[in-house]
Structures are given as structure tokens and as C-alpha cells.
Amino acid sequence: MQKKIQKISIFVVCLMILFSASIMFISCGKKDENKIRLNEVTRSIFYAPLYVAYNLDFFKDEGLDVSLETATGSDASMTALISGSADIILAGPEQVVYSQEVKDKPMVFGQLTQRDGSFIVGKTQQDNFTLNDLKGKTIIGGRQGGMPAMTLQYIIEQAGLTIGTDKAKGEVNLRTDVAFNLISSTFITSDSEYCTLFEPTATTLEKEHNGYVLKAVGDLSGSIPYTCFVAKTSYLKDKESQAERFLKAVYRGYQYIKTQTREKSAAALKASFSAMSEEELKIAVEQYLSIDAWCSSPVMQEESFNMLLKILNNASTEKYSPKFTDVVYNSIASKIA
């Protein structure tokens, strides 16, 4: 009888261990399921709603565990996505256009910025800068094939200026041979009169007396789907809930910046930009608000997409004409809008 009781006891203990292990396995599975590896094209206040959501735990409020890695350009971010080292990337939508032949196709599922976020920086102060001031001068526009360089080329040519190296004829020497993260240092050490920089780099450069912020490119370019959240088609199909909650948190970050004081916005961004003072952060936020840089809705409009293609095709000998629905997946963003 005693042996029988012992056997039953052992059986019960085994069941309890198996039950506990199952609970732990399910719990770990759910936790892993809500992990998102996010790769951003660069660290810039241009993406402020994302950092506000991250620093104020808006992602955690949505049950998500988001890790953030910074790349050195949209091409590097897309490589991370395609290789499987990132679940979601924040990058220029032109990379999705370039990646149409990828088997598990990347798609835009949410838009963050709607204008060019760079600023024209010069080596001398000019109170009334216009694009005509670029005649016969050199401007560093970033990497060839990247949105900053292509947008700059588009607005220069739309202003009736010619891209080239003949300074005597007033041609604008647009340099596209400089990596995104080296623009600032190359500008300082070269004889280039101008460059384009994002915040906080532009403000930092001016603070160090190495240049002057002259004009927001976004004021000249108009509305463009400049930076978007991108994921593989399989991810958007299998993890639609995670993608939706992710966009909700970012949208909440945008609302925070729009409704709170500049002081509160700067404080919310401080953890992501420790080298900047809160006063500098306030100035940068104000600059981006003044050009209406951030989207009030994460839904990309087809009209904006067509503008993107116009800029791409203006800068490239290869002509791109993908369908809007082959590049953009608006179903998730539409729920949030």
C-alpha cells in the first residue's frame, strides 16, 4: 500500500514538473514572440516620435520588447532586414523599390516622416540663402542612390540649376561620393562650401563653429515619403499584431511631441541624445515641427509614392515603375489612422 502511495506521489510530482515546464515554455514563447529587433538608418532627431515611444516605454505598454540598433545608411538597414538580423527597419522607402526581386519581399507598412529632414549647412553665415547661392559651388549631398542626395539633386534641377563641375558656367558640383556618416567630417576638412546634415549633427556643427545652418531642405522639397517602417512580407503576415502595436506606440510618440511642451519633448529625447543639451534638443524639435516633418498618419498616400518615383527616376539612368501595392502595405497603418 505504501509503495502504491509512493508511486502515485512520484507520478503527481512528475505531472507538476511537466505542467510547470509547459507554463514556462509557453511564457517564454510569448515573450519571444513580442520581441522586435529594430534597425534604424541612423540616429537623428528627425525620428523623434520613435525615440519618445522607446524612452517613455510606449512599446512596453503595448506588450513589446523592442531592441534598437543603428546602421550607417538605408542600404545597411535593408541588408540587416534581408539577412534576418532585423525584424523591422526604419529606412528610406527607395530601398524597398530597389528590393523588388527579393523572394520574401520587404514592404513599407508605416510612414514616419513626410519631408526631407536634412539642412543645408554652409561655411559662412548667409541670412537669406537661396538655391542660387549654390551656383559655381560644391555641396556634399551624401551617398549616391540615397534619398538625401537624390532629393537634393531634384530640387537643384527644379530650380533651373545644372549639376556639374564647371564652376565658370555656374554649375553645381553635387558630391555623392561621401558616406552618410562621414559628411560632417569631410565638409570640415575639404574645400566644399556646403553640405547637407540631419539633426543633431547640424546643430552640433554650428555649436562647434564649423558651419552655419542655412535652410531646411524640407522647405524646398515639399511632401515626400522620406522615412518609413519596413518589414518582410512574411513578418507582416505572421506577426501583424506585433506590427500594429509597434505603429500604435510610435503614433503615440508623435502625439506626445505635438501636444506636450518643447521642454517635455526634449526631456523625453535626452536618453537617446546624451551629448546634446535639452536646449539644443528643443531647437531641433522646433525646427522639425516648423517644416511639418512628421506624419500625422502612418498611412502612405499613393500621390506621395509617385513623387518618390519621380525623384528616383530623375537621379537614375534605370527607370523604376513598381505598383504602389507591391511596395506599400497600408492595412495595418489604416487601423491606426
Arrangement of strands in the largest sheet: 2-1-3-10-4
What are the segments in which pLDDT stays under 50 over at least 5 consecutive residues?
Answer: 2-29
The oligomeric status of these chains comes to single chain
Q: What is the C-level CATH assignment of the largest domain? A: Alpha Beta
Percent strand: 5-15%
| Number of domains as seen in the coordinates | 3
CATH architecture call of the largest domain: 3-Layer(aba) Sandwich
N- to C-terminal distance: 69 Å
How would you describe what is shown here?
- This protein is of the alpha/beta class and 337 residues long.
- The protein has helices spanning 2-33, 48-55, 58-61, 74-83, 94-98, 147-158, 183-189, 201-207, 217-221, 233-238, 240-259, 262-269, 278-290, 302-315, 324-327, 331-336, and strands at 35-40, 65-70, 88-91, 106-113, 119-122, 138-140, 173-175, 194-197, 212-216, 227-232.
- A 5-stranded mixed β-sheet has the order 2-1-3-10-4, with helices on both faces. A 5-stranded mixed β-sheet has the order 7-6-8-5-9, sandwiched between helices.
- α2 packs across α11 (240-259).
- The model is unreliable at 2-29 (pLDDT under 50).
